[in-house]
Amino acid sequence: xxxxxxxxxxxxxxxxxxxxxxxxxxxxxxxxxxxxxxxxxxxxxxxxxxxxxxxxxxxxxxxxxxxxxxxxxxxxxxxxxxxxxxxxxxxxxxxxxxxxxxxxxxxxxxxxxxxxxxxxxxxxxxxxxxxxxxxxxxxxxxxxxxxxxxxxxxxxxxxxxxxxxxxxxxxxxxxxxxxxxxxxxxxxxxxxxxxxxxxxxxxxxxxxxxxxxxxxxxxxxxxxxxxxxxxxxxxxxxxxxxxxxxxxxxxxxxxxxxxxxxxxxxxxxxxxxxxxxxxxxxxxxxxxxxxxxxxxxxxxxxxxxxxxx
Length: 309
Ligand SMILES: [Mn+2]
Description:
- By secondary structure, the chain is α/β, with parallel strands linked by helices.
- The protein has a single domain (6-308), classed as Ureohydrolase domain (Arginase, Chain A, 3-Layer(aba) Sandwich).
- The protein has 8 helices and 8 strands; from the N terminus they run βαβαβαβαβαβαβαβα.
- The chain has helices at residues 41-48, 80-93, 114-127, 159-165, 184-192, 206-222, 255-268, 289-308, and strands at 20-25, 67-72, 103-108, 134-138, 174-179, 196-199, 227-233, 270-277.
- β4 (134-138), α4 (159-165) and β5 (174-179) form a beta-alpha-beta unit.
- α1 crosses α8 (289-308), α2 crosses α3 (114-127) and α7 runs parallel beside α8 (289-308).
- Bound molecules: manganese (II) ion (MN).
- The site of manganese (II) ion has 8 residues, from loops.
């Protein structure tokens, strides 16, 4: 268990029913280590969570949210299969709260950490005969390599591809928003697979963002999708707003644009899980701007979900 609880949330074990199930995956063995240490983010974000006020921007009392901090998943960097199994078991073992399924809120880790969480939910939905859910990824990168350097299938830059390979997700139920750093091989594969991705230059104004999201909502609703998982790579934000990440790229969204986008999505969909990945505290400014921004995104999203119920 960690020494700091996220927003004073009571520490829980797998048998604690909750609505917002916060947990960390301090795992960044699936990325290039010269670019910061996102494995430190779960610890550092908990530590900083005492820094912010206890109300969301729209005036919701954060301390009233039914949340539990489950601590960190045990990561064994040299045993990736065991680590994936630990994540799978944790996500599938969460118990309903007040007849509602818990909503996992995962703090990474590198972006690969999203995959085992999404897969666990994917398998759970299949076992329970629930309709498939959609996945919306905010990321500067496409992460659509099949294999990094022709050998690594499970890597932070393969995560979108791995998610799209899941039988009930496929590129049809997947959208990547904010992309602005791609390589030709992944771009060509994305095009041939008809992956739906929105470049960052089409998300420059709030009008553009609203239009893109309304199109996404319509497409998903037409396909019968009511539930979505949201994965947020902090590098979707502009480098000026979130410099503490390993692969920062100019031309990204602002915090306010992302805030508005999340508010819109929570009005239109039932959020079944979310994550925030790739915050590298060792690369952050002395002001800890990136980490504070990450905390704001997580708590504001919880507020939007609470408001939408
Ligand atoms: Mn990224």
